[in-house]
Amino acid sequence: MNEEVKTAHSALIAEIRKLQKEDGLTLSQITRESGIAKSTVSQFLSGQYGGNNEKIAEQAQKWLDTYKARHQLNGKLRTEPEFILLPSSKQWVQLFEYAQMAGDIGVITGAPGTSKTVTAEYYCKTNSNAWMVTASSSLRSPRALLEEIAEIVDSPVKSGSGVMRGLIKRLRNTGGLLIIDEAQHLSTESLDQLRGLNDQAGIGLAWIGNEPLRGRIEGMGQSKSNAQIFSRVGMWKARTKPLKTDLEQLKDAWGVTNPELDKLLFWIGSREGGLRELSKTLRFAYFIAGSEGRTELQASDIEAGWTQRKSSSLPNSLHRH
Question: Which regions span the lipid bilayer (predicted)?
C-alpha cells in the first residue's frame, strides 16, 4: 500500500472515529448500515485489518457518504410533534376510560385521520393493563384473533384449543381494557368471541373502525342470533372529520403562526385522512422551506407539500392571488 493510499485511509478512519464520538455511533450500527462485518470494521478502524484494505475503504467511504447525506436531509426535516391530546382525542380517551372502568364495550367509528389510532396507542402507553390489537384480513377467524391477543397480553396459553381458557385466566380480575383497531376486518364470529371474553374475563373492550362498522353492529340488533353483540355495547362515539379545534391545535403544534395559511391548511385537514394528511403536508412543506434556508412557511410551500405528495392540484379558490 503506497503512502498516498495510507494517508487517504487514515483520513477516512479519522472521520469515522470523529462521527463515532460526536454522534454516538456504535460498531454494530456501522456494520448494519454498511454491510461490513463487525470484526472487519473494528480491525479497519484500528489499522490492523490484514485483508483487502482498499475494498473495505471503498465500502466504508460509500457508507460514510450515505450517512452524511442522510443526516443533511434529516436536518431539513422538522420533527413531528409529540402526541397531542386534541379535542377529538379527549372523546376517544373518555370512551376508553369508561370501557375499562365499567368492564363494558365501547365502539369508536369514523373517517381516517381523526386521531383514533394514535389516541389508542397513547392510552395503552399511559394506562396499566390496556392492550391494543390491530385487526386485519389475516385475523378474521376467531382462532387467529385469540392467538394474536394471547401473544400481546402474554397469556399462559398462546395457541391451540385452550387459548380462550388461557385468556380468561390471564385477564380476569385485571380491570383491563382490550382495544381492537381496524375492527371492521373482524368476522361476526370473532366479534362474538370478543363479546364472550368481555363476559367471562370481565375486561373492557373498545372496537375502533370505519363508519360501516357501526352500521354493521347496529344491524346485528335486528338478528336474534347476533343481538347479544349489539346489546352489549355501552358507549358509541363517532367522528366523520376532524373538528376545527383539532386542526387549529395541530397547526399550532407544528409551529405555524401565519394566519394567511389557515384557509389552505383547514381545507387539507378536512379531506380524507384529515389530521394525518395535514401533518404529512406540513412536514413536506417544512422540508421545502428548509431546503431554501427558511424556517417560516409560505403558501407556496403548503401548495407544493400537497401537490407533490398527492399529484393533484388545489382548488382554484385556494390559490394565492
Answer: none
For residues 134 and 63, give the distance between their C-alpha atoms in angstroms, rounded to a whole number.
36
Q: What percent of the chain has pLDDT over 70?
A: 92
CA atoms within 13 Å, Cβ hemisphere of 88: 29
Angle made by CA atoms 299, 304, 307, in degrees to the nearest 5: 125
Is pTM beyond 0.85? Reply is: no
User: What average pLDDT does the segment 247-276 reach?
Assistant: 92
**Nearest residue to 180 (alpha-carbon basis) of 140, 209, 216:** 209
**Amino acid, single-letter form, for residue 22:** E
pLDDT 10s digits, 119-132? 999 999 999 999 99
Average pLDDT over residues 261-274: 91
- Residue pair 239/111 in contact by the 8 Å Cβ criterion: yes
Neighbours of 231 (CB within 10 A): 12
Terminal Cα distance for the chain, rounded: 65
**86 grid coordinates:** 386534541
Q: Residue written as cell 370481565? A: 202
What is the arithmetic mean of pLDDT over 245-258?
94
CATH number of the 87-239 domain: 3.40.50.300
Q: What count of other Cβ atoms lies within 10 Å of the Cβ of residue 16?
A: 21
Q: Which fold has domain 3-74?
A: 434 Repressor (Amino-terminal Domain) (1.10.260)
In this structure, what DSSP letter does residue 313 have?
A: P
Residue 6 region by backbone torsions, left for phi larger than 0, else alpha for psi between -120 and 50, else beta: alpha
The yes-or-no verdict on residue 177 having pLDDT over 70 is yes
Strand ranges (E), 100-149: 105-110, 130-134
Burial classification of residue 238, based on how many CB atoms lie within 10 Å of its CB (0-12 exposed, 13-18 middle, 19 or more buried): middle
- Which residues in 25-125 belong to E strands, given as ranges? 105-110
